[in-house]
Every structure is written in structure tokens, then in C-alpha cells.
Specification:
Blueprint: E1 10-16, E2 23-24, E3 29-34, E4 39-43, E5 48-53, E6 59-62, E7 68-71, E8 109-110, H1 130-135, H2 140-149, H3 167-175, H4 212-227, E9 230-238, H5 240-257, H6 264-277, E10 283-286, E11 289-292, E12 298-300, E13 302-304, E14 307-309, E15 312-313, H7 321-336, E16 350-353, E17 373-377, E18 381-388, E19 394-409, H8 415-430
Parallel strand pairs: 12-16, 16-17
Antiparallel strand pairs: 1-3, 1-6, 2-5, 3-4, 5-7, 7-8, 9-19, 10-11, 12-15, 13-14, 17-19, 18-19
Helix pairs in contact: 6-7, 6-8
């Protein structure tokens, strides 16, 4: 199980892409994992044959746990061992002990972790080592069971690594008949009891557990909503000029770059310029202090079949229109194919979400934790508008327009600053220069 980021202590093996006996090429995806930060496909470190699967689908294990063994000698016999979670100590166990015939010249290769320096056995430092993270963290399944039964995991001593509470621990606790505090919904605000009983399935209903990414999204959204003082402001912005420039440059742009030119790069470019004028929209709250971010990292919400993910365009202020387009398309494609790295979905200072692609006119998006604002883009459509001509006379014209909504944290962003930001964004998009490239 690879270490997909410094703060990641465990991962869930969500899907095997190969089965025992399959040939595997070097760097070919072999299994999928889900962590607190990202879903990803893990490539094989070597070419060979998948000899053993040690961790089954849906199991959550600590980083550095050996999840499979590869036989690197072509034509070697394959040992179809039963699927079982392997302890971290199994990394040093020879393959012969698991039923594979001894091959002195063939070295079974465990699916290696990204950061060997963080392997178990190295003392934790600064309270941020593996043991410390594991001691204060349980798996999503255990946390869900604990929340449903009103159990405080911090008061339990587990049998897992560094004292973590495992699924077996909590099941044994419940089986013992121990009484727990009144059940509180896992998504109820802290300090508040659930209003009424939890919903129960009716005959004919389908009940299925949340996926890893859905459970994480749920937890993050509730925490974000509870943390920030949400207010949303709306502006209608005329994108007729942007549309004309886009249509004019589209064929040449796509021929030169091979990239599809959409409205979004123009919008990101205008957002960056407005954030420079109103840095509080690119800030974060830290206790009684405000952190004004120097970097302008724009998170772009991407809707996937299995959930929502927000890849980040770093230092967007340093990119041209073509650079923004390339970054957007690259991140979106790798998000859909589960090839994003953990650092590519972290560190956003401002976020843009685009529900307008599904036809939504406007919305009130939730501000991601650690930021002060998020911009929602409504559907871009033609509307009949009153336009004042050069002679001062009003006429009705067909314009390409969209509603932009800005949810902001009223703890540090005043309504006037939020509206000034939107006004600046409106002006930038309605008067974008012809040479915007």
C-alpha cells in the first residue's frame, strides 16, 4: 500500500484490475486505491506475473502493507493463495512460505510504496509520524459504525497498529452488550443530537454503503458548512464578447495546440486578475488570524461517475490562456482515469465549480475548508437583454449570459468586498481584450 501523501496513514484497496496468474507489464495499473485525499490506480513496479493477492477488495490497511506479490521470472509457477489482509511484518516473509515453489534466482516483488523512508519501524517525529497518525485515526468503516452506535473511539483501546480501533474491536465491543451514548448522526453538527430517529429502510428499498469518495465528500461538506459563515451573492455576466473572441480564435487555437477552447480558461484568467485586487477572497482563517495566500491556486470541481474531485491549477497567474487550457484538460482527463497524484488535489486557494454544464442556472456552493470563497458558474445561454446603444437609445438584443454565484466566508469577507470582486470579474469578462491568448 503506497504512501500517497505525507498525511496519509492508510488506504482502502477498492478494486483489483488483475487476477492471480495474469501477466503484468511494468507501470501497468494493477489495482485501485482510495485514500482520504484521492482515488488512484497504482502501477506495477516491475513486469511479471501476479502470484499472490494478500489484501482483498474493500479492505483498509496501513501504508507499507504488502498487498500482493509478483513473480518476475517468466514462466514461474503461480501460487493462488487465499485472499487475506497481510500485516506489515509480512513484507519480509519469503514467497515459499505462502506456497510458491522456491526460486533462488527469482525475487518476488512486493507492490512497493512511494516513500520507503516512512516505512514502519522508523520512529515517529514531531507527532506526525506513521504511529501518531494511526493512533488518532481509524478506518472510514469503523468511524461509521462508531457514529451509528454513539461510540467515542478516542476512549477505546484498539488492538490494531499503534492502538488503532479495528472493525473486530468495535464489533466485539458491541457484542459484549456495552452501553453507548445516544446515537448521533455522523453528519450532525458537533454538540447537536440527531433530530428524530435515523431513517430505516422500507420493504423494497435498496441499501448500499457509501463509497470511500462519497463518505469523504459527505464528511468534508458537513465540516466545511459548519466551519464557515456562508453567504452567497449573485451577478449576471454578459459573455457575448468572450463568446465572439472564442469563436474567432477557436479553429486556429485548436489546430495549434490540439486543445479544445472553452469559456473556462477566460473565466479563470479573469478570476485571477480579480483575486489580485481583492486578496481576502484568496485567504484563509487560522484562529484569530487571516492568512493571505501568495500563491493563486485555482481548484476546479470535476464531476465523475463515482463522485466529486477538485484538481488544482497551481500558480494560475503564471499561465497564459493556452497554458490554462492545457492544464484544465490534462487534470480533467487524469481525474477521469484515476491518475491524479495526491498533491494535485490539495492546496487550492480559490475554487470554481461549474454546475451550469448540467443546465443549472445558479447555486449556492459550499466553501471548501481552508479557503474563503468558491465561485459557481450557471448555464451559459442566450437571453433577450436591454442594451443601450452609442446614441443613448435602449434596444432589445440577444446576448450570451450566465449567472455567477460567489459563496464567501463572512468571518473575513465583507459583503462589499465580495460584490466588488464580482463587479471586477464582470468588468473583466465583458471587456476582455482582443489579444487575450
Amino acid at each position: 500500500m503506497p504512501q500517497m501523501g505525507e498525511s496519509i496513514a492508510e488506504g482502502t484497496l477498492s478494486k483489483w484490475l488483475k487476477k492471480v496468474g495474469d501477466e503484468v507489464k511494468r507501470d501497468e495499473p494493477i489495482f485501485e486505491i482510495s485514500t482520504d485525499k484521492v482515488d488512484a490506480e497504482i502501477p506495477s513496479p516491475v513486469a511479471g506475473v501476479l502470484a499472490e493477492i494478500l489484501v482483498g477488495e474493500g479492505e483498509t490497511v496501513a501504508v507499507q502493507t504488502v498487498v500482493a506479490r509478483l513473480e518476475t521470472e517468466k514462466g514461474a509457477a503461480v501460487a493462488a493463495a487465499p485472499v487475506a489482509a497481510a500485516p506489515v511484518a509480512a513484507a519480509s516473509a519469503p514467497s515459499a512460505e505462502r506456497g510458491a515453489p522456491p526460486k533462488p534466482q527469482a525475487i518476488p516483488q512486493p507492490v512497493a510504496a512511494s516513500h520507503p523512508s516512512s516505512a514502519p519501524g522508523i520512529p515517529a517525529t514531531g507527532g506526525n509520524g506513521l504511529e501518531e497518525r494511526l493512533r488518532t485515526k481509524s478506518s472510514p468503516l469503523v468511524r461509521k459504525i462508531a457514529a451509528e452506535h454513539g461510540i467515542e473511539l478516542a476512549r477505546m483501546q484498539g488492538t490494531g497498529i499503534a492502538g488503532r480501533v479495528t472493525k473486530r474491536d468495535i464489533e466485539s465491543y458491541l457484542a459484549s452488550g456495552a452501553t453507548a451514548a445516544p446515537s448521533r448522526s455522523m453528519h450532525a453538527p458537533l454538540g447537536l443530537e440527531q433530530h428524530g430517529p435515523a431513517p430505516e429502510p422500507w420493504p423494497g428499498d435498496r441499501v448500499e454503503p457509501m463509497s470511500k469518495i462519497r463518505a469523504l465528500t459527505s464528511d468534508h461538506m458537513v465540516a466545511a458548512r459548519r466551519t464557515a459563515a456562508h453567504v452567497t451573492s449573485f451577478f449576471e455576466i454578459d459573455l457575448t464578447r468572450v463568446n465572439r473572441l472564442r469563436q474567432k480564435a477557436r479553429a486556429q487555437f485548436e489546430a495549434e495546440t490540439g486543445q479544445k477552447l472553452t469559456y473556462l480558461p477566460y473565466i479563470i484568467s479573469a478570476v485571477v486578475e480579480s483575486l489580485k485586487q481583492f486578496p481576502v477572497l484568496n485567504a484563509a482563517v487560522s484562529g484569530n488570524s487571516i492568512i493571505y495566500r501568495r500563491q493563486l491556486n485555482i481548484g476546479i470541481a470535476v464531476a465523475l461517475d463515482w463522485g466529486l474531485i477538485v484538481p488544482v491549477i497551481r500558480d494560475a497567474n503564471d499561465l497564459s490562456l493556452s497554458g490554462l487550457t492545457k492544464s484544465l484538460n490534462d487534470l480533467a482527463e487524469r481525474a477521469r482515469t484515476k491518475r491524479l497524484k495526491p498533491e494535485e488535489v490539495q492546496g487550492a486557494t480559490f475554487t470554481i465549480t461549474n454546475p451550469g454544464v448540467f443546465g443549472s442556472l445558479a447555486g449556492t456552493p459550499i466553501i471548501p475548508l481552508g479557503t474563503s470563497a468558491i465561485l459557481g458558474l450557471g448555464a451559459i445561454e442566450k437571453r433577450a437583454k436591454v442594451v443601450t446603444g452609442p446614441d443613448g437609445e435602449d434596444t432589445i438584443a440577444i446576448r450570451t449570459c450566465a449567472y455567477f454565484s460567489l459563496s464567501f466566508d463572512h468571518r473575513i469577507v465583507d459583503g462589499a468586498d465580495a460584490d466588488k470582486f464580482l463587479a471586477s470579474l464582470k468588468k473583466g469578462l465583458e471587456s476582455v481584450p482582443d489579444a487575450a491568448r
